[in-house]
Design goal:
Layout (H helix, E strand, L loop, with lengths): L1 E6 L4 E6 L6 H7 L7 E5 L2 E3 L10 E6 L5
Parallel strand pairs: 1-5
Antiparallel strand pairs: 1-2, 3-4, 3-5
Amino acid sequence: MEVELFIEKENRKKMIKLEEGAILKDVLEMVNVNPVTIIASRNNEIILEDDKLNDKDKIKLLSVISGG
């Protein structure tokens, strides 16, 4: 299966091929992104690391900004 990934921090889109049954954590490991630093959405709905992905999903990784 294939998903479209948009990484806000890098302002780029890329297509990623995954095994059937892949979860968001698999994608994060592939692109070397720490899950604590992002909010992920699929088709404009927030998803968690253990959510199963589907073919043709559009995943966005949005950076979490903190300050003090």
